Amino acid sequence: MSWYLDGNNLMGRAGNGSNKDDREIFLARLLENHLPKSCIIVFDGPSFSRSGAAEIRRGRVRVVFSERRSADDVIVERVRKGDRVVSADAELLARAKLRGATPVSPAEFFSCPGPRGRGGEAGEEKPAVETHVEEWLRIFGGDE
Q1: DSSP symbol at 18
Q2: Which of 90, 100, 125, 144 might form a disulfide with 117, Cβ 3.0–4.6 angstroms?
Q3: Distance from C-alpha of 44 to C-alpha of 6, rounded to nearest angstrom
Q4: C-alpha to C-alpha distance for 48 and 81, rounded to whole angstroms
């Protein structure tokens, strides 16, 4: 099972811009929060890596750049039955669900300690620090 994060969508909900530096800063914040072992973050547009590669690794997380396509299309193309898709984009979540993926709201993803454990299993790694949970709920809204 893989977790797909709609990078620009989550950045927009957090009030970030979408330039190279904003994506780097946002990615660093995500990586501080014990993301699932099999996590793919998909950003719209060109790569911010020095190499210009459409896919890079940051620790155990893969970062994919959609280049000339939409991140939504890249996610839907790659997602498989049993995968999870994190986004506030209802259309993307509906498309992913048709392919057998489970839609996850940003608030649900960032508030529950289970997904961030090693390998995505609850209890395998210590839960997120309460202040991190509160910050993510403030950013992504806990009312969903």
Answers
A1: -
A2: 125
A3: 9
A4: 30
**29 and 45 Cβ atoms separated by less than 8 Å:** no
- The predicted model scores a pTM of 0.73
Q: What pLDDT does residue 122 have?
A: 37
pLDDT of residue 66 exceeding 50, the answer is: yes
How many CA atoms are closer than 13 Å to the CA of 26, on its beta-carbon side? 25
Which value, to the nearest 10 degrees, does the dihedral of the CA atoms of residues 28, 20, 134, 109 take? -80
DSSP string, 46-111: S--STT--SEEEETTEEEEE-TTS-HHHHHHHH--TT-EEE-S-HHHHHHHHHTTPEEE-HHHHHH
CB neighbours (10 Å) of residue 117?
A: 19
- Is the model's pLDDT at 112 over the cut of 80? no
The tokens describing 41, both together, are 């973050």
Mean per-residue pLDDT for 104-127? 57
pLDDT tier, 123 (very low <50, low <70, confident <90, very high otherwise): very low
Query: Are 87 and 95 a contacting pair, CB within 8 Å?
Result: no
